[in-house]
Amino acid sequence: MPDLSSLLPFGKKKTAAPAEATPEAKELEKQKRELEKLQEFSRGLVTIQDIIAPEAIEVDFTFQKINETFTRTLFVAGYPRSVPANWLSPLINFPHQINVSMFVYPVDSGEILDNLKRKITEMEAEIQSDLRAGKISNINTEVKLEDARYIREELAKGSERFFQFGLYVTIQAKDKDELDRVTKAIQSTLGSLLIVSKKATLQMDDGFKSTLPMGVDKLQVTRNMDTTSLATTFPFTSSELTMETGIMYGINEHNESLIIFDRFKMENANMVIFAKSGAGKSYTVKLEILRQLMFGAEVIVLDPEHEYEDLAVAVEGQYINFTFSSESKINPFDLSNLYEEGENELGQKIISLHGLLKVMLGVMSAQQEALLDRALVAAYKAKGITPDPATQTNEPPLMEDVYKALIGMENNDANDIAARLEKFITGSFRGIFDQKSNINITNQLTVFSVKEMEEEMRPIAMYMILDFIWTRVKKDLKKRILVVDEAWYFMKHPDSASFIHSMVKRARKYYLGITTITQDVEDFIHNDYGKAIVTNASIQFLMKQSTASIPVLAETFYLSQGERQLLVTADVGEGIFFAGQNHVALRVVASDEEHQLITTNPEEIYKRQQAAKVAAADNVHPPQAQTPNQPAAQQKLQQKMQTDTTERKSQNLYSIDDYAPPEK
User: Fold this and answer.
1) 149 φ, ψ to 5°?
2) Domain count, the chain
3) Average of pLDDT values for 51-77?
4) Which residues contact 216 (CB under 8 A, 6 or more apart)?
5) Cα–Cα distance between 223 and 635 in angstroms, integer?
6) What are the residues whose beta carbons fall under 8 Å from the beta carbon of 409, sequence distance 6 or more?
7) Which of 42, 59, 72, 484 has the fewest Cβ atoms surrounding its Cβ within 10 A?
8) How far apart are CA 236 and CA 105, in angstroms?
9) Does 504 have pLDDT greater than 90?
10) Domain check: are 132 and 159 in the same one?
């Protein structure tokens, strides 16, 4: 075809007209221009990287300086043949600021099996060569061969997998001397486990980045591990018992964390404490009482050994010394006057009185129990009280009314019961069980003491007081804690054991947490009711125990060998704290002011009394005005906790094992 371009005008070429852009292309071009403008604008802004970046980084051979902080990274270069579980605990809980990173890389088992086969062949050949030469084979080679054969077998069965594991530690310090000192301490800690650690010389920057929370391994220093060995590196081996609300019970001895716990957030708020004499159980319980008072709980204590009087006085609580000669009286026939749908208040009270009277009078035949029941119903009926709740506000009967009802039956069995009851009505024990109640629990802390009661009368008095408390608790729903010290007294009689077990089962319904304390482990746990109380409590605290008690506790609480040893060797105030499914080793600690209020150390009590006399003489601390509408015990306690003394620092913490409080 001829060239027709020569026919066109000189210097002109005909071109096709451009096609008009589509709407999609126009929109794409518009977005491109907006993105360019945004990028140009962003170049003038301060980014997050600009804000968090240090002013200067100085990288040396064996350390790195970021602003004014010195850092150094160590990597683990060698491990022993075997390590125990939780071997990383000394490193994780090291008392200095460090960052620890672990990197795990799965390895193909087929490749490892091929390598193991070759290594096993080489080691077998080496051993055979030594034997043919009449030499003793190298023991290290034999151990390696044994391990290699075991790993090969487990890999082939699929029981194990193979991994590469890297462990890095970055230390932070304020100066070079501190950095060197901490480095030496960490290397010594690892060295005690036969673990070889080295500095990441000339790689401090990469080491620092490898321990940042970015999951980037810049060092790539790894060692081979099977699944079992890798499992021992799991760092989270200590249980934590910390809630957002609650009181501090002590310090976790595994990692020094605080154990802050709210017993009322559990399935039930009941707690049991087992401890031998002198283990610090009274100190522990009084410390919890103080802290519960500060959070507004009402606390009632059944005190058979005169342990809580000083505490009650210190917080202006109510201390009731229950004796034959005291003015405080309790009528065991009192009703709660509370109507609960589906429950027979009078029937429940009569059942409770059956238990009390059997503790008082001893074993009765079935015929005698029936007669006693008839006498109890008659005594209430004589006062116009029937199962109808409207009648239960009438004045309740007294023990004397039951005695008269039995006498009136003119029956030999009834007369026998009346004869046994007579000593409590007109005999040597009169005046304590047959009087109208004149006690009203209105204080935030109320302590009932039966220390001065005769030994044979103490279980009866404790039963009656506990029944009185239970009746009062049902009247008014509020957050309460009931402390029953020396609870083994209730296990001496089946009826009293059944009664306290019934209270523990129903306590949650009335916003009540019951703390039972005993040092007679075997008597308590071997009793069916006692064991049920223990196993159903949401919280158990096992303190120092005698060797004879360990087998019983180990069977009940499924203790490991280490936990058994801990209970035998525990210091004062130490033990195992169980809460739900978790348990930790706990150490009880108190602040200075708390310690002064609850200590039972005679020397410390004497010094405190002398100081109080001097203060009273000099009028150093005039009484402070009480805040309106605030419970007296809570106001008094808060004043004491705010008081600062010149003798001690207010932030000092006392460990209970700093002394050995005498306990009975």
Assistant:
1) -65, -40
2) 3
3) 91
4) 209, 210
5) 62
6) 371, 374, 375, 415
7) 42
8) 20
9) yes
10) yes
Alpha-helical (H) ranges within 383-430 are: 399-407, 412-425
C-alpha span between 468 and 460 (Å, rounded): 12
Predicted TM-score (pTM) of the model is: 0.66
Tell whether 78 and 217 lie within a shared domain: yes
Task: Tell me the average pLDDT across 51-70.
Answer: 89
**Category of 644 on φ-ψ map: left (φ > 0), alpha (ψ -120 to 50) or beta:** beta
How far is it, in rounded angstroms, from Cα 465 to Cα 331?
9
Which amino acid is it at 328?
A: S
Residue 224: Cβ-neighbour burial (10 angstroms; 0-12, 13-18, 19+): middle
Q: Under 8 Å CB-to-CB from 12, ≥6 apart: which residues?
A: none
State how far the Cα of 141 lies from the Cα of 166, in Å rounded to an integer. 25
Do 152 and 115 contact (CB within 8 A), yes or no?
A: no
Q: Which of 105-119, 390-404, 414-428, 579-593 bottoms out in mean pLDDT, i.e. has the lowest? A: 105-119
* Distance from C-alpha of 537 to C-alpha of 268, rounded to nearest angstrom: 7
Residue 498 CA to residue 359 CA, distance in Å, equals 12
Last residue of a domain, one of 206, 231, 256: 231
Residue 576 has phi, psi (to 5 degrees) of -110, 125
In angstroms, rounded to a whole number, what is the distance separating the alpha carbons of residues 91 and 235?
9
260 and 225 within one domain: no
Instruction: Residue 396: give the domain boundaries.
Output: 345-425
Cα distances from 553 to residues 174, 485, 544, 564, 663, in angstroms, run 48, 19, 12, 9, 22
Q: Lowest-pLDDT range, 317-331, 531-545, 622-636? A: 622-636
Whether residues 200 and 80 share a domain: the answer is: yes
| Chain segment 161-204, per-residue pLDDT in tens | 888 999 999 999 999 999 999 999 999 999 998 999 999 999 99
Cα separation, 541 vs 520, whole angstroms = 14
Residue ranges in 519-631 assigned as alpha helix (H): 521-525, 528-536, 550-557, 561-569, 592-598, 602-618
Confidence of residue 19 (pLDDT cuts 50, 70, 90): low
| Mean pLDDT, residues 421-440 | 86
CATH code, 566: 3.40.50.300
Question: How many Å from the N-terminal Cα to the C-terminal Cα in the chain?
Answer: 127
